[in-house]
Amino acid sequence: MRLFIKLFFCGLLFSFFAPAQALAEKTVSFEAYSGFAYNAPTQLTVTEKGKEDVTLMADWETESFQDALYYGLRVGLWEGKKGWEIEFMHHKIKLTNAPEEIDSLEISHGYNLLTVNRAWELEVGYVHLGLGFVFTHPDLRLRGKERDHGKNGVIPSLNIAGPTMQASIGRRYKMSDTVYGFLEGKITTTYATIEYDDGEIQAPNIALHLVFGLGFDYFTGE
Questions:
Q1: Neighbouring-strand partners of residue 187
Q2: CA 197, 158, 148 angle in degrees (round to 5)?
Q3: I want to staple 35 with a disulfide (CB 3.0 to 4.6 A). Which of 12, 111, 193, 211 is the partner?
Q4: Please, is 136 exposed, middle or buried when counting C-beta atoms within 10 Å of its C-beta (0-12, 13-18, 19+)?
Q5: Residue 125: left if φ>0, alpha if ψ -120 to 50, beta else—which one?
Q6: Domains of the chain (ranges, CATH numbers)
Q7: pTM of the predicted model as reported, rounded to 2 decimal places
Q8: pLDDT tens, residue by residue, 152-177
């Protein structure tokens, strides 16, 4: 991930000084962003072997710029005004109305959304629709005990927890022939089932995001 970010900013710097190119039919776009998220209340269920389930209407916060940063990365291949994209969003959620059984629950080191998007450049702006999966890294302290997780993770300490989908619309603001800033509104809907040593957490999320970032285009030719 750090390598991707370094390459992104190297490409961004190069784009400022590279000679302008005629608009080509095929374009590769690279984008990075941060921003804010509002998380709608959703039903949270925590099950533990031999114990009564804990169920509540959960309130969540994102705390974008505290501890692990809330951010996203996106790569797109465009032909004219249509494109395919791969997007990674490092979303974060923290439970703020925990009952007495749950000492703390944070998914702040990653409620990570990985999607494949179809995108269009329209008169209203850039529209993106995506489907994919959520990968989670929860920190759960339940009934006075830290809980281990990662049973169904193919990456150490990350769970493949369920499906996600997103829709967004945004505008680009040109800074040079190839570099642009952008502002985007996004909605994500995710259903996550996270296993831990003695049970599982069902933690769906519906969120509205306002993100801002930088991007650059690489023209590949006709």
A1: 167, 208
A2: 20
A3: 211
A4: buried
A5: left
A6: 2-16+26-221 (2.40.160.20)
A7: 0.82
A8: 444 445 678 899 999 999 999 999 99
